[in-house]
Every structure is written in structure tokens, then in C-alpha cells.
Design brief:
Length: 185
């Protein structure tokens, strides 16, 4: 009789260990990111007002890329709001091209020499998954020779590349107030 009770107790314990933990709980899953930026390139210096081209190649596995996120960080100012570029349907699974930023700002008549900024770019798919983030440092410098004349690295050096969209972020000169007055007085 004791062996029979012990057997039922053992079977009950095995049942509880194997099946009860899975009821009502989310099972851990491994989620690979379906969108990835595979290649990127941008020059790192140019004068204020420079037309900056940021080259990216990305692909989506079992997802549709929908928009490119661009975020700028500037010392003395901080983070600018995210700028979104909506992708055309032809670029939903694979894209290779550039996003363009005309760095002249209607909110700053100039930026001081050597002003550094950092641009972070990622891509979102329809489900809201974010790709890896690529980071592009940039410094505003007058007289940079060859800023518009550079050799593109592979895979961007083959054929005409499409412009995927424009970045619409207006920079501020942190030492000026919004009325254009110097704050260092």
C-alpha cells in the first residue's frame, strides 16, 4: 500500500513539475531582430550648411521596413526630437541609398566652428521592431577640403543610389537664445 501511495505521489510531482509551470505564464522566447542595417557610411566633417549624405543599406527578414528614425545629439543642447522618414513600398524588404540632411537651420544663423553633433539612425518595421542603430559623428568645420568629393566604400560605390528621404531637424546654437542674442554676456 505504501508503494502505491508513493507511486501516485511521485507521478503527481512529475505532473506538477512538467505541466503546471506552463499554465498562465508567458514562455521565454528568443526574438531575433528581423531588420538589420548591414552597411553604412558618412563623412565626418563639413562646414555649417553642408548637404550631408548618410549612406545606408538594410534588409528585412520576414518583415516590412516602414520608417527610418534619425536622432541628433548636440553637446550644450542635448537630444533633438526624432525625425521620421517613411519608406516607399519598393524599399520595404531591402534598401540601399542615402538620406540627406541640409544642415543649414532656420533656427540658427550659424553654428560655432568645431561644433560636434552625433546622428543615430535606425529602421523600424511594421511590427514596431527596431533595427540595430548606426552612429555617425560629425563636426562643423570651415574650409574642409574635399567634403563633397569623396570615394564611396563598397557597396555604395556601384551605380546611382537613390535618395531615401530628407532629415528635417533644425539645429540650435546653444550659446544663443531663441531671439538670436548671445547668452554668454
Amino acid at each position: 500500500m505504501k508503494t502505491k501511495k508513493l507511486f501516485y505521489l511521485l507521478v503527481s510531482l512529475v505532473f506538477m513539475v512538467l505541466f503546471i509551470p506552463s499554465f498562465g505564464r508567458a514562455q521565454p522566447t528568443t526574438k531575433e531582430n528581423p531588420t538589420i542595417i548591414t552597411h553604412s557610411f558618412a563623412v565626418e566633417k563639413g562646414q555649417y550648411g553642408f548637404i550631408w549624405k548618410i549612406y545606408i543599406e538594410a534588409e528585412a527578414i520576414d518583415a516590412d521596413m516602414i520608417k527610418i528614425a534619425s536622432v541628433v545629439d548636440q553637446p550644450g543642447y542635448g537630444h533633438y526630437p526624432t525625425d521620421w522618414i517613411i519608406l516607399k513600398p519598393g524599399y520595404r524588404r531591402h534598401l540601399k541609398g542615402y538620406i540627406q540632411w541640409n544642415t543649414f537651420s532656420s533656427k540658427a544663423s550659424y553654428l560655432r566652428e568645431w561644433t560636434p553633433i552625433t546622428l543615430r539612425v535606425s529602421i523600424f518595421d511594421k511590427a514596431g521592431n527596431e533595427s540595430n542603430e548606426v552612429v555617425f559623428p560629425f563636426t562643423f568645420e570651415s574650409g574642409v577640403k574635399g567634403a563633397y568629393q569623396y570615394n564611396l566604400p563598397s557597396p555604395f560605390d556601384q551605380g546611382d543610389l537613390p535618395r531615401l528621404g530628407y532629415i528635417a531637424i533644425d539645429l540650435f546654437e546653444p550659446t544663443m537664445d531663441r531671439g538670436g542674442n548671445n547668452r554668454e554676456d
